[in-house]
Specification:
about 130 residues; mainly alpha; globular
């Protein structure tokens, strides 16, 4: 009888050890990370002259402005979070490669929509 209990505990433990490695962050935290990555990439890889802090504030605010509307539609908020996560991953990879690896725009478009539909057009600023 104890054997099946041990099996269940071990199985649950193994499930807890796995995962996809994606940190569990709030919408606001993803908006901040995404904004930081977008503005850092724009300055470092794309030659933007916009200062980092105002850029991050503007991009983050555009995400935060659409959040109430996203909450009203089932799954919309999580779709936008996924978009922010994918965009952040791609831009961070480009930065990590010293701008030698361009962001995978097809992957970003697949997650966000070609017109940024997943986040209702946010960010309004594309640095």
């Amino acid at each position: 009888m104890r054997g099946w209990l041990v099996g269940i505990v071990v199985g649950l433990g193994l499930l807890g050890c796995g995962g996809d490695g994606v940190p569990t962050l709030t919408y606001d935290e993803w908006a901040e990370r995404s904004a930081t990555a977008q503005c850092s990439h724009a300055r470092t890889c794309a030659g933007s002259t916009l200062e980092q802090e105002p850029c991050v504030a503007q991009v983050r605010d555009s995400y935060l402005q659409v959040e109430p509307t996203l909450e009203g539609a089932e799954g919309a908020r999580s779709g936008c979070v996924q978009c922010m996560r994918i965009r952040t991953e791609e831009l961070t990879a480009a930065l990590d490669s010293d701008c030698q690896r361009p962001p995978d725009t097809a992957r970003i478009d697949a997650a966000c929509g070609a017109e940024r539909q997943a986040c209702l057009g946010a960010p309004s600023l594309t640095p």
